[in-house]
Amino acid sequence: MDVVRRFYGAGPAADDSERRSFFAPDAVWHVPGDNPVSGPCRGIEQITGLMVERMAPLDDWRIEPRHMMANGDLVLAVVHVFGTRRGHSIKTHGGHVFRFDSDGRIAEAWGFTEDQAALDEFFRA
Fold first, then answer.
1. Within 10 A of 104 (CB to CB), how many other CB atoms are there?
2. Could you point out which of 11, 44, 84, 95 has its C-alpha 20 to 30 Å from the C-alpha of 3?
3. Residue 43, CB half-sphere, CA atoms under 13 Å: how many?
4. What pLDDT is attached to residue 10?
5. What is the spatial distance between Cα 27 and Cα 78, in angstroms, rounded to a whole number?
């Protein structure tokens, strides 16, 4: 859980360069929904580059962890998401499930949101 806390605390979400070291080279991040950001991002370049490009432009994007729990190589983080983009805003609860490799790096992650339709609309704007 300490790694996940440091992950969320690693600078603004619009610049994921500080998060690169948290990922295994072949990591996969699964983005939910039906919007331009949705789908799997494979590898550090796609996770920290392509995913951020697809989210742009962001005026504000904050993910605040509220609760965490762990079970073996899995960590569940319950988060609150705040965003502003092209005059649209979102405020919703969500979550991430992280699976770690044997070196303590993120091997796979899945995103969840309380209101997927609102998040899809936000990223389509």
1. 12
2. 84
3. 4
4. 87
5. 21
Tell me how many domains the chain contains.
1
CATH of the domain at 30: 3.10.450.50
Residue closest to 4 by CA, chosen among 55, 114, 116, 79: 79
pTM, to two decimals: 0.93
Q: Is the pLDDT of residue 4 over 90?
A: yes
Containing domain of residue 103, as a range? 2-124
Residues 125, 56: Cα–Cα separation, whole Å: 10
* 17 to 92, 95, 97, 116: CA distances (angstroms): 25, 22, 21, 27
- Cα dist. 96→6, 57, 68, 88, 116 in Å? 14, 22, 10, 23, 14
At 1, is the secondary structure helix, strand, or coil?
A: coil
Q: Which of 39, 21, 22 is nearest to 123 (CA)?
A: 39
